[in-house]
Amino acid sequence: MWVRSALNGVAALFAISVAMTGVSYADTFTFTSCHITGGCPSTGFGTVTLTQSGTSVNFSVSLANGNRFVETGAGGGELFLFNDTLPGSTITTIATAPTTPAGGLSGFTNLSPVMADGTGTFTASVECTTASDCNGGSAPTMNSLTFTVTNATVAGLETANAAGNIFVADILCGATQAGCTGGLTGPVDVSTPTPPVPIPGTVWLFGTALAGLGLLGRRKRKAQAIA
Question: How many structural domains does the chain have?
């Protein structure tokens, strides 16, 4: 009898786990190096977070210490670069904060390689639709960039280029960025390995169900021994 109850419990947990397969998870990276003229520290520029949501990936790029997104030739004329050659992927819902360029923002995937100084080439980008809106010091204050890549996976967008770099932001150094004099511009990049992918809900719950089945078995054997 206890076996039937235990199996029913396993089935129920597995059904729940199947329903949870769409639960999102996130990977966060830190900008670890830079190629700003005049030198700069190795950390502290900001972070990049990718969150899987169904068949789309949400990006959140946050700059720290007053650093701002800009477009310069050193950054390939882009605000943000990454690698995306996934068939059918598109970039949507782009936004910057606290301000937005007057001409808006555009995103591209499956590009011919775009070069950012010192960091290699990339195949996807987010840029100001009107380049003159975001040239160097004339760019609006943009410390945060968010957008969505459709028909994509987190793993598929965390691919390093031939130079070992995953993401690049072109920035204007903030006044409180240690070791980087205000007014300097250039690319900062993520070149760390991909973080471990969290265990999906299905695997975790099924493992929990099996552990529960084993516990029930031990309790049943103990009760029989006492009897």
Answer: 1
Residue 178, token pair as written in the block: 């240690």
Both structure tokens of 196: 């471990």
Residue ranges making up the domain that contains 139: 33-191
Burial 92-113 (b: 16+ CB within 10 A, else e): eebebeeeebeeebebebebee
Domain-embedded: residue 23: no
Label residue 158 left, alpha or beta by phi (over 0 means left) and psi (-120 to 50 means alpha).
alpha
Rounded Cα distance, 36 and 182, in Å: 11
Instruction: Report yes or no on 215 lying in a domain.
Output: no
Whether 113 maps to a domain, the answer reads yes
pTM over 0.85: no
Q: Which of 32, 46, 58 is nearest to 143 (CA)?
A: 46
C-alpha 19/C-alpha 191 separation (Å) is: 35
What are the structure tokens assigned to 58, written together? 């949400």
Residue 96 within a domain: yes
**How confident is the model over 165-223, as pLDDT tens digits?**
999 999 999 888 888 877 889 999 998 665 544 545 444 444 544 455 455 455 555 54
